[in-house]
Write a structure and sequence with these properties.
The structure is a single chain. The protein is 25% helix and 29% strand. With 296 residues, the protein is α+β, with helices and mostly antiparallel strands. The chain has one domain: Deoxyribonuclease I, Chain A, CATH 3.60.10.10.
């Protein structure tokens, strides 16, 4: 009887510990560049941005990596999200200030320790085309400390090229190389972005078969993923291709994973905030004790 009581108390203790563990909400979202043709088609940035802000606040994102993000639109989002700061670095596309691969973060919970960027190219410190890529691509990264705690997050946000082949293969190898170079043993690593390859692609296999990160989709049983992540601004578009991803350190406990398919209405027409759905995960901020990191 005493053994049963002890087992019951231990079980209850473990359940309570899980229930009250602090969580971190993370999202990646290609918010779609603001262009005239989209507005003509009814996908007006002013309407889309309001829907984006509503979703950020409703799901209470702690970190959000965005792609196709330009300075004017970023400033507008930041004005509507006063509890967030952002870090990102412009991708100098053909001599012009390009997208930033911005990481939004809650300023009351996290502080930046270090940050930087690199190009997905053999010349990673210069704005050059990478291998057979069609566009110059880059990756922003930042190390965050959770305020008041000894918890660190190393976050990478990128938008890889769609050309495939050598560019896909070498860009993902470079991402793994950078994770190994920049990460410390205490870091929870997050790699997110519009990677332009699905879960069957060569680039995906390179990332998911590495020892440093795993697809969050595979690390939880609680999933809400009834569609792919690219929607073409069409609420009726159906796919099973996940081209937007969040990878995490293997020691991370992922509570839930979702592809968020919310829409809004404009002039009696159902509309989407972007031509990509955001990917959302929730993780515990305590890592699995059984995992032995090989990082220094």
């Amino acid at each position: 009887m005493k053994k049963k009581l002890i087992f019951f108390l231990l079980f209850c203790s473990s359940i309570m510990s899980f229930s009250f563990a602090e969580t971190v909400n993370i999202a990646t979202w290609n918010i779609r560049i603001n262009i005239k043709n989209d507005s003509i088609a009814g996908n007006i940035w002013g309407n889309r941005s309001r829907a984006i802000v509503d979703m950020v606040l409703f799901y209470d994102f702690d970190f959000m990596g965005v792609q196709e993000d330009y300075e004017k639109e970023l400033n507008e989002l930041n004005e509507k999200l006063p509890d967030y700061k952002r870090v990102g670095f412009p991708n100098h596309e053909n001599g012009f200030l390009g997208s930033f691969n911005t990481i939004f973060y809650k300023k009351g919970r996290f502080a930046i320790v270090d940050s930087g960027m690199f190009y997905l190219s053999p010349e990673e410190d210069k704005p050059t085309l990478g291998w057979n890529a069609k566009y110059i691509r880059s990756c922003s990264w930042a190390r965050f400390k959770e305020i008041g705690k000894k918890k660190y997050y190393l976050v990478f946000n990128t938008h890889t090229d769609y050309a495939g082949g050598e560019s896909e293969r070498e860009s993902t190898k470079l991402l793994i190389k950078k994770i190994n170079l920049l990460s410390k043993k205490s870091d929870i690593v997050l790699l997110m972005g519009d990677l332009n390859f699905n879960q069957r692609g060569e680039g995906y296999r390179i990332l998911n078969n590495s020892e440093v990160i795993k697809d969050a989709y595979d690390l939880t049983l609680l999933k809400m993923a009834n569609n792919g992540t690219f929607n073409k601004f069409d609420p009726n578009h159906v796919s099973n291709d996940r081209v937007d991803h969040i990878f995490v350190s293997p020691q991370v406990s992922v509570r839930k994973y979702g592809i968020l398919t919310e829409s809004y209405w404009y002039e009696n027409s159902q509309r989407l905030p972007s031509d990509h759905y955001p990917v959302f995960i929730q993780i515990d901020n305590d890592v699995k004790k059984s995992y032995k990191s090989k990082r220094k």
